[in-house]
Amino acid sequence: MRNVALLGSTGSIGKQALEIARKFSDKVSIRTLSASVNADLLIRQALEFSPDCVVIVNEDLLHKVQSGLSGTDITVLTSAKGLVEAARWPGVDTLISAIVGSAGVRPTIAAMECGSRIALANKETLVVAGEIIMPLAERYGAEIIPIDSEHSAIFQCLQGEMSSAVDHLVLTASGGPFRDRDRASFSEITREETLKHPNWDMGDKITVDSATLMNKGLEVIEARWLFDLPADKIRVILHPQSIIHSMVTFCDGSVKAQLGMPDMKLPIQYALSYPDRWEGAFTAVPWTLIDSLEFEEPDTKTFPCLNHAYEALRAGGHAPAILNAANEVAVDLFLRGKIPFTEIPVLIEQVSMEDSGSGSVNIESLAESDAWARRRTTELSKVGSH
Ligand code: MG
What we know:
Layout lengths: L1 E6 L4 H12 L4 E8 L3 H11 L3 E4 L5 H7 L6 E4 H9 L6 E4 L7 H9 L3 E4 L2 H18 L3 E3 L2 H9 L8 E8 L17 H4 L9 H9 L1 H14 L6 E5 L5 E7 L4 E5 L5 H9 L31 H11 L3 H17 L7 H12 L8 H21 L3
Parallel strand pairs: 1-2, 1-5, 2-3, 3-4, 5-6, 6-7, 8-9
Antiparallel strand pairs: 8-10, 10-11
Helix pairs in contact: 2-3, 4-5, 5-6, 6-10, 6-13, 9-13, 10-12, 12-13, 13-14, 13-15, 14-15
The structure holds magnesium ion.
The site of magnesium ion has 4 residues, from helix 7.
């Protein structure tokens, strides 16, 4: 039985994780849940799954959740501190980290200190703090099993292989909704167009990241830490059908790929079942209905975020944290209609150039870099041309 702390239970990954918990109720027990602001859904989930504890991060909604769960013995917590408590709740042995952004770092560390398995959907944790997280995981014997579909694919391809036999990784990218769009019209891209991803059904933030290719850039940094390979051993190729989820090329030239229909439930379930596989009614690949599997180089002139991410990875130190924070703010500004789509990479580049991110890294210095980059991105967005 996996005893799960599910942080981010009302988001896209969280809801799909609960579908798996519902289906495998003999294998998965939900012990804690958390939501940022969706109190109504959190209450419904708590009443269905009877966890020991729930966290509503927004403190203004604490009373609402408390009254919604009155008459139960479920503990209700709030704030970022509550997330840390929920992550290391007694009896929990698995953290599903599905919250958005760098808020995932501290709860992940708390769960690792308890030796829990980390089923990691929150890529920002490794992007921001991979240099700290990976040694801690080793020290506490905490397994990190990626939920991100590309990294789950690579993780699966590496089973039974020696890491010294790996030549390079190939992360596949769908290219997002604007892959074939005329570059001249990029400044007119709307929020609604951006949120229509061709293959994957995901949360808003990651869907915008997919459209700018920043999602792939963050995934390159995530892969660097998960698989301990330098930037030049991690390549990106566009594959619009999203059937091949990623590949590993070995030193003898052999390539292993993991394929499947685009469905996040598969990597979520694997992160819980590993090293076993549980029966699941996932759609098999309908081979004869697939016309072709296409591949092309990413266009980093049109989508400069991918290069910005490689630059941050090569710079190291605080640079990935600065990149990530600038991106989180820029995406939020775009979603709120404050800046155009084309301003997202511009802001990230400006903020990244102001601070090279050098110096030794610890959790406090990362938090400072994160706060500075958020402030600076907001300031620069106001002096821009809009
Ligand atoms: Mg992914």
